[in-house]
Write a structure and sequence with these properties.
By secondary structure, the chain is of the alpha+beta class. The chain has 4 helices and 6 strands. The relative contact order is 0.14. The model has no long low-confidence stretch (mean pLDDT 96).
Length: 141
Amino acid sequence: MKRHASAVWSGDLKSGKGRLSTQSGVLDGNNYGFKTRFEDEAGTNPEELLGASHAGCYAMALSMILGQKGLTADVINAKAVVTLDEVEGGFAVTRSALTVRAKVPGASEDDFREAAEAAKTGCPISKALDIEITLDAALED
């Protein structure tokens, strides 16, 4: 399976503008730029999109692993906070902090924790990231 996305950038770093598009059309010429990435201007940025990818991948992996245990979640709420730090030589994404809250009828705390940890290391986006990944996971009633 292959998926693609594209970016078009015009201008210098601070005043230039970019557009992001995805194969599915979910993003279709969406604007991004320095101010959406490093300041508070409305719009998207690469780190936000990486966080969405990580949270989405994680939630699906957790659902799969729970299913292998005979469990089905009513809801899995996953969030990934991606950190961009200034490091020697420029900027780098240094960590992704996953938080998950889930309602899983019949799941014990141990079963859920085991599945949550397995999803953290097993989801394809986690595998692609060479950064620190943390997890805060809890079952809800």
